[in-house]
């Protein structure tokens, strides 16, 4: 009896202590981002002090510099290129993955798991191994520095993830509903658009957001295959690799602005993030 | 729930003789798969075959006429090249260190977040944020804003306690790259392990507690065995992504100070040195390494997958 009476109280105290530790670690992990945000609103002089000036006056100069009003290169073309590459490739991925995932989740195909694992295995092939032939191909066909080449490559990069994710979402659609639609004489495109898609919509949305993130983040292909015209936002950021005097506020503003779409997409997909990143293996 | 009862019916269609209409129906069910399958083979498999072929040629892009078949020479050169061998070693060290560190940190965070406390959702959001910073931006943040010896945040904070003012990147270059990657990948591990913790059998845990098991015993004999496959999955998926890491090495050290890993070396040997044959041979070696990891990864994924399928 006595242990039963004592235990909850000590548990509660320990629980509060561990909650505090969790808060501490959470803040510690977030600190670099918070510092980045604060620095982006400081003047370049205040950004580069030691010890750091926490309470310095706030200004939008870093953002003005980044957006090119201070005379530097404008990031807008790169941001637009990244948007085109990410949005277009995500749409293509959905168009290709949705029917494929449907076929795989309903499982009429023989050896369907083999097909599923083929998709997964392509994800494990390092991108760098195919880079040279793709570069040579692009050079010979005049596709270098063309954003649509990146669209194709990003589609292939994300298709396996999308097929796996959607397959696990579509498996949750009751077969009886699909059978009923078939009995009513609905054809496959109608079934996909009118019956399956509405039920699986949250899963499809999460898949799209994760594909968007991966495309937006990609650097290696964009760095090798684009130049002046098709440069994407991460390639634009590589312009900040070598120091250029006092430029911390500008770097922070640039990093933050370019990360914003990913942060937004990631938080929107938060609940399905694990399932997507683990290729549907973890729910 | 309805899927549970109807699925067996759907998977075993009525057995009929290979009737033309049945064959037609088989193709109709297979058709939605084909566009994706053909696209993947064309875009991912063909370039790799090309890489394999190029790896047998002595081919410098600056001297295109001197291209000739050399058999395994490129491989011999790659394997005997000290820089390249070093980059293989760097890749291994980088991957193992980052995966292990982020896995341990991720486990600690997942265990903390598995408990109920005030503001758990906020803490979870704070912890996920590092994973949602564009990798190049994260690398720039660490390089310029945190590591900078004169006005970086680390030395700024050390200043308050009168500590030393090290030049982080030049004294411990690999560690500097690793720390930034651990910061980004810990949230990923935490999310996978948290999902694992939340799929534990609550009744079993309750029963153990009633039987007087201590927290440590529950962790050691119930939680850890249950988490084993989630740990494996996190380690393997993390390895697949980190073996291929290019952004952090490229941004923080530009491959200098002995931090060049294989992806960076492959990039450099064809993009800057124009050695197509050598780059391809190195690429093939990266693939062989990945296949070894991937074989294990696929096995883990498929065992989790079969369990999910069995449960459905």
TrEMBL record, chain A:
Domain of life, per lineage? Bacteria
What are the entry keywords? Cell membrane, Membrane, Transmembrane, Transmembrane helix, Transport
Q: What is its main location?
A: membrane
Q: Where are the transmembrane segments?
A: 20-38, 84-104, 116-135, 147-170, 191-215, 221-240, 247-269
Record localization: Cell membrane
Q: Where is the ABC transmembrane type-1 domain?
A: 79-269
Q: How does it sit in the membrane?
A: Multi-pass membrane protein
The family classification in the record reads: Belongs to the binding-protein-dependent transport system permease family.
What is the protein's name according to its record?
Carbohydrate ABC transporter permease
Q: Which organism is it from?
A: Streptomyces cellulosae
